[in-house]
């Protein structure tokens, strides 16, 4: 263990923030830390939109299912997968960009995730708290319109940043033996291990601050995965120029 690993293992989602502002220079430093993440073939396909306009923040809150911290957090960012900038690079060199490939969707989306995690770790190292907002994909077309996103750009998730005004417990993760496999995929013992993990998750939900949730991990996942998962996404992404081939 060292300080970096301890920081990583202490991650919690923060949904209540103080009024203390985040200096813009600090935010730029965090974005630079995000830029330092690995990027597929140097494409650097992440664009970050800082949303300051309070009316837009309120509309984005509505789009994300009424999560109040979207409007209230000192900083709200929307992280976008951006292949439009790559098209600009091609245009600058009189090259005809071949777009719409599934691989381009994967690499640009992975770029955003790596960028965001670097930014988040840097933020937490400065005492800031964060929560990812995947809920902006509930009304992704409206979000894209609000942010005036062009073709070949889509919003992957939002990110709230601020100084924490709460101290939630760390949520237990799956046992490493379920996640780390040797040489091939073998889940023959995973059921028993997950059953034990379910007990730990149920205990966490029962005892966490302000919590009275009675649910295990497998129950939570099975309840979620029997429902449709934003079925509008495929048509939207194709309309934006992704996943065409």
In short:
The chain is of the alpha+beta class and 245 residues long. Helix content is 45%, strand content 11%.
Walkthrough of the structure:
- It contains eleven helices and four strands.
- It is an alpha+beta fold and 245 residues long.
- The protein has two domains: 3-168, NADH Oxidase; 170-227, no CATH class.
- It has a four-stranded antiparallel sheet with strand order 1-2-4-3, with helices on both faces.
- It is globular and about 60 Å long.
- The relative contact order is 0.16.
- The model has no long low-confidence stretch (mean pLDDT 97).
Instruction: Give, in spatial order, the strands making up the sheet with the most strands.
Output: 1-2-4-3
CATH class (first level) name of the largest domain: Alpha Beta
For the termini, the CA-CA separation is 45 Å
Mean model confidence by pLDDT: 97
CATH homologous superfamily grouping of the largest domain = NADH Oxidase
Tell me the domain tally: 2
Give me the strand/helix succession: HHEHHEHHEHEHHHH
- Rounded to an integer in angstroms, the radius of gyration calculated over CA atoms is 20 Å
Low-confidence stretches: none
**How would you classify the helix and strand content by structural class?**
alpha+beta
> What's the architecture of the largest domain in CATH terms?
3-Layer(aba) Sandwich
Q: Strand-residue fraction?
A: 5-15%
Biggest β-sheet, characterized? Answer: 4 strands, antiparallel
Q: What is the CATH fold-level name of the largest domain? A: NADH Oxidase
Shape by Cα distribution: globular
Figure out the total of helices.
11
């Amino acid at each position: 263990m060292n300080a970096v690993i301890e920081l990583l293992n202490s991650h919690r989602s923060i949904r209540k923030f103080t009024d203390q502002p985040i200096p813009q220079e600090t935010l730029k430093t965090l974005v630079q830390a995000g830029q330092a993440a690995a990027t597929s073939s140097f494409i650097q396909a992440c664009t970050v939109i800082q949303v300051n306009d309070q009316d837009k923040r309120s509309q984005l809150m509505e789009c994300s299912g009424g999560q109040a911290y979207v409007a209230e957090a000192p900083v709200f960012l929307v992280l976008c997968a951006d292949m439009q900038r790559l098209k600009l690079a091609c245009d600058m060199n009189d090259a005809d960009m071949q777009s719409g490939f599934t691989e381009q969707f994967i690499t640009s989306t992975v770029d955003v995730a790596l960028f965001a995690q670097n930014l988040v770790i840097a933020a937490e190292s400065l005492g800031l708290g964060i929560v990812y907002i995947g809920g902006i994909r509930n009304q992704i077309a409206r979000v894209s319109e609000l942010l005036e996103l062009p073709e070949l750009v889509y919003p992957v998730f939002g990110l709230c940043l601020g100084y924490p005004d709460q101290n939630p417990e760390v949520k237990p993760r799956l046992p490493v033996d379920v996640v780390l496999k040797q040489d091939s995929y073998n889940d023959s013992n995973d059921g028993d291990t997950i059953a034990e993990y379910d007990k730990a998750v149920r205990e966490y939900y029962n005892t966490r601050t302000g919590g009275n949730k009675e649910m295990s991990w497998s129950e939570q996942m099975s309840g979620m995965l029997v429902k449709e998962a934003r079925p509008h996404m495929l048509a939207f992404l194709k309309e934006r120029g992704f996943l065409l081939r």
